[in-house]
């Protein structure tokens, strides 16, 4: 049995020294093909491919499992005087230590928790067959495989797709041009994964559990996510880590509203879609620096884009033609007695949101106010003066605006028209 993990070996005979965790393969088995040879644990790192062998029987002083629920354990050997600290997946580490326990007690594993007492079981006849760690002075293929400790994997051919799952050490994974129609749930087990590329496939939906990964880069371009729910963007892990998102060429008719929850987003690419309008709340992505929306059907952008600090905005090949400009009626609605009578009553969330604004309560950080009220405030369009407009009409292509952007890419004879709302007649006269 082998365990892919990170280890730090501490020599108790030597004081001091740096404690660095290295990518490691821990394997337990017979030391050689001889029947009389005892069971050993072999530790192999990228810097020591020949490995270190530790005897198991009568050579383990103690196994520390207090933090096993966090995927951490320590094996203290008698000879040599090494403490091997292990960090790995909790389930795999538990299974590995159960095998070690079985070797130590010489019988089947009990159903009681591992951390209770590794040495308390009554000795029974051995019922475990372990493989040899060496065959004719050569390591077996399970230990010599170059992909076991690999942190990056690129799969562009079906024959290269792993049949026994992905290495848990993967940091970067690319699965492209395979026409995958369903998301592989094995990807959800890769807790160290930071970059995932699923471009040029046929994916129609993604599981919400994807948001539990701490991805910093995600490429979903050239798929079929037009009817996707995008609920995975509601998970806290991916909201706090995702910095680069590519959803180009997915047939999208609108930019997914849940994108506004990815508060760590720096680069957003949504080229080659059918997007016509953008959400007003996009301005709340205060870390966003690069926004690419080329080759869509956008005819105007929200006026709230003035509040963004973009370094690059690409709106080339969109519908920002000057001849298509409208002349909206900017007379304020709701000033007459009739319109006041026909107005729909405000929802409880809207009333709460209005109170937050009136009392000038802080609401930017999660948890300060109820989530539904915070969402109402985030999604509400803002007037040019900064006042939220809960029930105002949106005037399309109401004005031409200039953005605070270092580089704006437009076609010739195109202008940046803005969709606007107005909190009062005074603001509407400023157009």
Automatic annotation (TrEMBL):
Residues 335-345 have a biased composition (Polar residues). SUPFAM superfamilies: L domain-like. SMART domains: LRR_TYP. Keywords: Leucine-rich repeat, Nucleus, Repeat. Residues 1-114 form the PIF1/LRR1 pleckstrin homology domain. Signal peptide: none annotated. One of its GO terms (cellular component) is cytoplasm. Residues 326-345 are annotated as: Disordered. InterPro entries: Leu-rich_rpt (IPR001611), Leu-rich_rpt_typical-subtyp (IPR003591), LRR_dom_sf (IPR032675), LRR_domain-containing (IPR050216), PIF1/LRR1_PH (IPR057437). Pfam families: LRR_1 (PF00560), LRR_8 (PF13855), PH_LRR1 (PF25344). PANTHER family: LEUCINE-RICH REPEAT PROTEIN 1, PTHR48051. This is PIF1/LRR1 pleckstrin homology domain-containing protein. It comes from Anopheles farauti.
């Amino acid at each position: 049995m082998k365990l892919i993990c990170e280890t730090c070996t501490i020599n108790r005979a030597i004081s001091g020294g740096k404690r660095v965790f290295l990518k490691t393969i821990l394997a337990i088995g017979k030391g050689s093909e001889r029947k009389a040879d005892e069971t050993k644990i072999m530790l192999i790192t990228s810097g020591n491919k020949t490995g270190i062998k530790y005897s198991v029987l009568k050579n383990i002083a103690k196994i520390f499992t207090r933090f096993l629920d966090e995927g951490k354990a320590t094996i203290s050997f008698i000879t040599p005087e090494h403490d091997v600290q292990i960090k790995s997946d909790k389930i795999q580490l538990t299974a590995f230590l159960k095998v070690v326990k079985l070797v130590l007690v010489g019988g089947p594993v009990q159903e009681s928790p591992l951390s209770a007492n590794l040495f308390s079981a009554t000795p029974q006849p051995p019922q475990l067959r372990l493989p040899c760690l060496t065959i004719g002075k050569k390591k077996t293929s399970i230990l010599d495989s170059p992909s076991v400790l690999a942190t990056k994997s690129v799969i562009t051919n079906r024959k290269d797709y792993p049949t026994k799952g992905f290495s848990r050490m993967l940091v970067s994974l690319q699965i492209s041009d395979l026409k995958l129609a369903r998301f592989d749930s094995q990807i959800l087990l890769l807790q160290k994964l930071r970059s995932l590329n699923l471009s040029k496939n046929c994916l129609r939906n993604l599981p919400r559990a994807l948001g539990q990964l701490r991805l910093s880069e995600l490429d979903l371009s050239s798929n079929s996510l037009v009817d996707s729910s995008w609920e995975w963007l509601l998970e806290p892990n991916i909201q706090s880590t995702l910095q680069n998102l590519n959803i180009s060429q997915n047939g999208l008719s609108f930019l997914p509203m849940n994108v506004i929850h990815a508060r760590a987003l720096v680069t957003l690419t949504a080229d080659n879609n059918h997007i016509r309008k953008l959400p007003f709340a996009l301005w709340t992505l205060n870390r966003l620096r690069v926004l690419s929306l080329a080759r869509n059907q956008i005819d105007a952008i929200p006026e709230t884009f003035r509040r963004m600090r973009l370094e690059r905005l690409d709106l080339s090949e969109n519908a920002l033609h000057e001849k298509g400009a409208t002349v909206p009626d900017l007379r304020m609605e709701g000033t007459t007695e009739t319109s006041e009578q026909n107005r729909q009553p405000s929802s409880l969330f809207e009333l709460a949101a209005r109170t937050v604004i009136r009392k000038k309560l802080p609401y930017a950080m999660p948890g300060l106010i109820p989530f539904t009220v915070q969402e109402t405030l985030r999604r509400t369009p803002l007037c040019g003066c900064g006042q939220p407009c809960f029930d105002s009409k949106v005037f399309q292509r109401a004005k031409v605006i200039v953005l605070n952007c270092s580089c704006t890419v437009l076609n010739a004879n195109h202008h940046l028209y803005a969709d606007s709302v107005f909190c009062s007649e005074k603001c509407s006269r400023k157009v």
